[in-house]
Amino acid sequence: MKDWKSQTEDFNQTTHESSGKETSSGEHTQYPQKLSILDEHKKTAQTLKEMLEEILKLLRNWIVKNDKDSETEKTKNNETSAAVQTTEPPKQTDNNETLQAEETTVESSNNQSDGVKFYTLNGFTLTIINEAQDFGQEIQERIFDTFNKVYPKMRERFNKEATKNVTLIIVRKFNETAHTSNKTIKIHSAYFKETPLDTDTITHELMHVLQSSYPNFEQTWLIEGIADYARWKYGCDTHQEKLTNFESKHNYTDSYKVTARFLVWLETKVNDKVVDRLNEGLQKNQYQNGTLWKEITQKSVDDLWNEYTKNPDLPK
């Protein structure tokens, strides 16, 4: 097929050859048709040209983006510090169990431009995204120390299939002290500025990470009670005297420390597996309006609470 330029030349040649000659009316009527065909070819050629230019533009943008991504990854890798080998001495746990000394690898990388730090130890990683400029490095390292001490033990007990990678976002403006969604924890920076040593808020929120596998969260009072129980059991700065003292106005549905103290009492006075079984039941959606209590203890939660109110003291 000839292009529009060749067809134009043919048309001009035909016109030149016919000049000065007598032509019929039929020959004259063919000229507008040829012009129309030429216009269509011109439009087609212009459309193809615009399409080609657009494809070339997209290709150039893709190449530029790919180069930028490669450069970013290269920069990130260069900023990652070398692993530091450390040997930990035997540590004493809350349950008086001695952990054997083991060789561990601590990896940390800093990206000061976007306030992101990665801490890795024994396969567990805590990513800290710091959106508060006044939230210092010392507090972040203390938070990672808490994470390292409590999360592996809690995961082993309550949810062995849970993630080993947790993200902590430190925010300046937040209407809560802390909030957890799946494996992401948000913390209000002002809280740690007021109580810089209380990193066990992280312990509570880490329990919520482990609870993210629950199919529903209807029993909020029990979920929060188990989280505060975990804070008491595994927290670095928590002891029995920090549990809320019993008061006659309390109820087991009051949640948090009130419920946590009730769980501690049940564990020491009724069934030492009660918290584990409650956690397992919530994971398997077996709570069923409280029947799970009878399966575990042969008593209703109301009967257990009545016994608790009569003698709420905890073992020393």
UniProtKB/TrEMBL annotation:
Residues 1-38, 69-112 are annotated as: Disordered. It holds the Pfam family BSP. It comes from the Eukaryota. Signal peptide: none annotated. InterPro entries: Uncharacterised_BSP. Residues 9-33, 78-112 have a biased composition (Polar residues). PANTHER family: PLANT BASIC SECRETORY PROTEIN (BSP) FAMILY PROTEIN, PTHR33321. This is Secretory protein.
